[in-house]
Amino acid sequence: MPTVEQSVAQLQQTNAELVTASNELTNEVTSKLSTINSTVDAKMQEIDGSLNTAVTSLNDYLARARAEHPFYRLTKNQLGTVTSNVLDGYSVNGAFPIQFELYRVVQSGIAWELRDDEEKEILTAMGRARAVHFSPDINVVKMTWSGWQSSVSAPTFYQKSDKSTTLTCASYARLVSGSLGSAAAGFTGITNEWGLCGDVFSGSPGSYFHDHPYIASESGEILFFWYATVAGLVPLERNRPRWGHFPYIYDNQPL
């Protein structure tokens, strides 16, 4: 029969062997887990990459489909004709003085080198840098206002459109002076440089829309062209402008 000392020594040896075996098992499990984690991480990155590619492809398709969708204008006079200081086809707020005038006409058929700096800025803002031909000629309208006080209503000019579907109200514009309110309609995002401005408005059955930009200063001046409201969601990326002169759906009026 082994002595107590021998039994203790045997137990210590057995315990050491168990510890060694446990460490070996732990190392093996850790190694396996590391391999599994590496494999899972690689697969997750592969899945993420495939998903990102699919999302990008889908977004590109939607952008192309949206750009190819026909848009129809709901408001008159996108051309920007002015009669007796009034923008034709629009109602104007009579609570303070608002005037319109034809500021200039950017004509088609002129070589880029012969255009002045402002014409080049306008065409570049449209994504038509160095363009010679386009249609129609661009009537740039100047709107000025004065004498506005916060105690009176702030909308400027408007037309009424049915809004049973999504609408886009936009223009190319530049803020010369003054400021606009948060409800700027087709002037949303305007700056002191020429660029695409506007916003998209969700529709609901039987609703309607007034495309009136609100002002927020006592006086001011805006230059703009091709202001309109159209049915549908037109992309309004300022650095990739797609806003144009759209067909009017109600009659054969060319404006």
Which terms would index this structure?
255 residues, alpha+beta, Jelly Rolls, 2 domains, 6-stranded antiparallel sheet, two-stranded antiparallel sheet
Compute the average pLDDT.
Answer: 88
Output the number of helix runs: 2
**Which of globular, elongated, flat, extended, rod-shaped describes the shape?**
elongated
Q: How many angstroms separate the termini?
A: 116 Å
Tell me what the structure shows.
- This protein is of the alpha+beta class.
- The protein folds into two domains: 1-68; 72-231, Jelly Rolls (Sandwich).
- Helices cover 29% and strands 25% of the residues.
- It contains two helices and twelve strands.
- The chain has helices spanning 4-68, 117-125, and strands spanning 72-73, 82-83, 86-87, 91-92, 98-106, 138-145, 157-158, 160-162, 167-177, 195-201, 208-210, 220-231.
- The strands form four sheets. Strands 1, 5, 6, 9, 10 and 12 form a six-stranded antiparallel sheet that branches. It has a two-stranded antiparallel ribbon with strand order 2-3. The protein has a two-stranded antiparallel sheet with strand order 4-7.
- The longest helix has 65 residues, at 4-68.
- It is elongated.
- It starts with a helix and ends in a 24-residue tail after the last strand.
